[in-house]
Design a protein that fits this description.
This protein is mainly alpha-helical. The chain is built from eleven helices and no strands. The two termini are 39 Å apart.
Length: 274
């Protein structure tokens, strides 16, 4: 009885897997295109729901659309779990978590009003367009960026530590120079001003009025232009190194791992054939 049950279930499960996860077949392409259209329409519905004029006039229609897509994506998520061979691997994968977050806010909104606006996270599901359109070179480029950020993480941490030190010192100095009478009521608020000034954002909600304060402000602004270039340079160097390294090794199309020996036949991360 168990063997006959397995014989019946396996082809059905495999067929669902081919349609949902494989973009190189006609049913798979059709499914993925319809899925992308549904994702875009669902995000538009969430965005329009935040506009009061539209919500008052078409509120019921938007709510119906939101729940229609939620139920649709819930069914799709369940089918994905059923069809995969290793369920935990899919559930805790990047796309698995995104697929779950695409439906969860609607159900949470039944208890906590307003959480449905987190449904805009569905826009992340459009990342599947890389797989559907087979834009491997762009996926490879994202792999370069990921490996570069990982390689330069220590330098970036040191940089942000240095940056934190500067804004604390500059903010404290400005608090001593300007004082509460000029809007710098405390050191945390002065540090906030230093961050805004250093990043050249310049909201203008707090401004120095004394000559010494304006001089310090000018120094911070000039310093800001030089500091912005530092993380860009660090990451650019690592991207260049990653590209040089990839020329000497293969890249896995499944998980985008570029740390593969030239004589390797299988990826050491996901086990897929190279």
């Amino acid at each position: 009885m168990n063997s006959s049950k397995k014989t019946y279930f396996q082809p059905w499960r495999e067929k669902i897997f081919q349609i949902i996860f494989k973009a190189d077949t006609r049913p798979g392409k059709t499914f993925d295109i319809l899925l992308l259209i549904s994702i875009i329409l669902s995000v538009i519905a969430v965005v329009l729901d935040s506009v009061e004029v539209i919500r008052i006039k078409y509120g019921k229609t938007i709510i119906f659309a939101e729940w229609f897509f939620t139920i649709l994506f819930t069914i799709e998520y369940v089918l994905r779990i059923i069809s995969v061979k290793k369920i935990p691997k899919y559930i805790f994968s990047f796309y698995g978590i995104i697929d779950l977050l695409a439906v969860l806010p609607s159900y949470i909104s039944l208890l906590f009003v307003g959480t449905q606006y987190f449904l805009v996270i569905r826009i992340l599901r459009l990342l599947r367009v890389f797989r559907i359109l087979k834009l491997d070179r762009y996926v490879g480029a994202s792999g370069y960026l990921k490996s570069s950020l990982k390689a330069s993480r220590h330098k970036i941490i040191v940089f942000f530590g240095f940056l934190f030190t500067i804004v604390v010192i500059m903010g404290s100095l400005m608090y001593l120079i300007e004082g509460p009478e000029n809007g710098f009521t405390n050191i945390p608020k002065s540090i906030y001003w230093a961050i805004v000034t250093l990043t050249t954002v310049g909201y203008g909600d707090i401004t120095p009025n004394t000559v010494l304060g304006q001089t310090l402000s000018s120094i911070i602004m000039i310093l800001g232009y030089t500091i912005i270039a530092i993380p860009t340079g660090i990451i650019s160097v690592e991207i260049s190194r990653a590209r040089d390294k990839s020329k000497k090794s293969k890249i896995c199309k499944s998980c985008n791992n570029n740390d593969i020996d030239t004589n390797a036949k299988y990826c050491k991360i996901c086990g897929e054939k190279i």
